[in-house]
Amino acid sequence: MEERYFTIGMAGHIDHGKTSLTKALTNVDTDRLKEEKERGISIELGYAPLQLENGVFASIVDVPGHERFIRQMIAGVAGIDLVILVVAADEGIMPQTEEHLEILQFLGVKRCIVAISKIDRVDEVMLELVMDDIKERLSGTVFHGAPYVTLDSLSGSGVDELKQTILTELNTAEFRDAYGSFRLPIDQVFSVQGQGTVVRGTVYEGVVRKAAQLLILPGEIPVKARQIQVHHEEREQARAGQRTAINLGGIDRTAVKRGDVLVDSENFLVTDTLDVALQVIGRKFTPLKQRTAVKVHIGTSEVMGKIVFFDRKELEQTPDEVLCQIRLDEKIVVRRGDRFILRRPSPMETIGGGWVIQPTGGKYRFGTETIEMLRQYQQGTPQDLVADALNKYQLLDEQQLMQQTSLDAGILKTVLGEGVASGLWMEIPRQGYSLSKTFIKIKDEFLERLREFHEEFPMRTGMGKAEMIQSASGAYPKPLLEYSLNLLGEQQEIKRTGQFVAIAHFQPHLPKKWRARMEQVIVALEKDGFQVKKWEEYFLGSPLPKMEIAELTVYLLETSQAYRLKEDTLIHRTAFQEAFQLLKNNTGSSFDLKQAKDILNLSRKYMIPFLELLDEQNYTRRAEDQRYWMEEK
Fold first, then answer.
1. pLDDT (tens digit, 9 = 90+) per residue, 182-205?
2. What fold characterizes domain 4-171?
3. So what's the architecture of 381-508 in CATH?
4. Check whether domain 273-378 has CATH 3.30.465.10, yes or no
5. What is the pTM of this model?
6. What are the distances in angstroms from CA 353 to CA 105, 286, 340?
7. pLDDT tens by residue, 317-353
8. Distances in whole angstroms, Cα of residue 324 to Cα of each of 118, 311, 334, 483
């Protein structure tokens, strides 16, 4: 079963029990700073691992609830897959709960569990009133169908029910893309004596491996991943959805900060002008005038900038999505589709949030023409449309892409050429196009499947090619699988031996568990020469299972360590080669049965099968009572 990794946010008003609930779920106290212990509130982000059933792993982010720490809260919930909204039964919905709810929705969080805490402090009537109040507040949000769990963190009542509810929600959630380029927005930076600089964050996409060469943006600082930890456990890699700490080589602590982004390629844009789709909060706020200074939270970045409108002079409360631009005071790393929160710096308040429709905006004229252009950006660039179609259908030809994207044939041809040149997708001869990351995913699945096969059947040459393709045909088109296998062969990731496929460096070998017993059998077979017993007699009294005996038989034959003399009899290759050389050296271009018998001094019981074996191996060719030597192999 494939392991899946998620990040869960613990949100809610100050002192409603988020940290206590995190500890009840994970046995980890996330209030680690001295000030937090003294003041009883969370200042920095706290993290704790939660392992569930069915290969589901989660990191719980306990975000600060106090209004003054909203910046840390936004950094924490950026990138979460599920939120647990904690509401104290004795207080109900509070101002911070409201603001957290708005921020969560603006950041595109779709899944929520409402945890009503401190139920020991109220009676059933009060608990019912609080629950009705929460349901009313959530009725107009994406969380209107959220499940409810009542609990008390200190006694543990309801905690197991919450764990099961978390598992149910995550089992139907999409998990992050581990096959794109690696990206980790940094939310914590610190030094460890003797180790150097360490950064923490949630992996947004891709995979990072130990010793990988990475880049810190926007400063373009090259670094190396010296060590990777996931919740204090050292790992060889970390992947999308996991909370990770990375010890970086080649950089001083002062050269990196929260908001920087750790990546593994140059496929990421560094920009200071964003075209965005903005949704404002559902209550009145002080109108935002043209070019007003704003604070933008995106990923873990917190950047000042100015907001620019193209269809109005100021922004007031409106249910409509507003297409506009944010011109930042400094460059950040961003991708189309990234979510952001917009706040006014003074007086401090959340204005709204939305998503980036164009990471590299330009200078546009005021008016409907620009708004129409931004609407087209919102729908997607031609490259976006092609990428979306290939992501959905995996393999499409030009005709199918035209149908899916509605692009003009000339524009599509240009986009396809540019995408192939940049490595975004691959052209598969006579079949069409597929995303490069889809091939990487297939490659990882094929190699993992082969590793498992080699571990289970170490004596076999490899897995059958047809079986290999069939095992993945439910998830990918067969032509794409065929092409991927051929490409893996060209890249020397795998090798093909006849109909079998194996990892390039793999060699068939005896299994460790049974090696000594099997070697005893092989030695006995070699010692017996041509006076061999029936093959099954070599295993009398042996603890070797029947399946392992069958595997050993195939292994010896396929690696030519033994030959099948008769249906029930094998001879070691030493005996075969000695007999072959003796016969070859003492005959001319041909020989008959009597000559062979005189030279080899074998009984008819072994002589006839041996000569037939020579024919089978193409060393000789029989014509009536004569055998003729074939040309040297």
1. 899 998 888 887 788 989 888 888
2. Rossmann fold (3.40.50)
3. Orthogonal Bundle (1.10)
4. no
5. 0.69
6. 9, 16, 5
7. 999 999 999 999 999 998 888 889 999 988 888 899 9
8. 44, 8, 17, 44
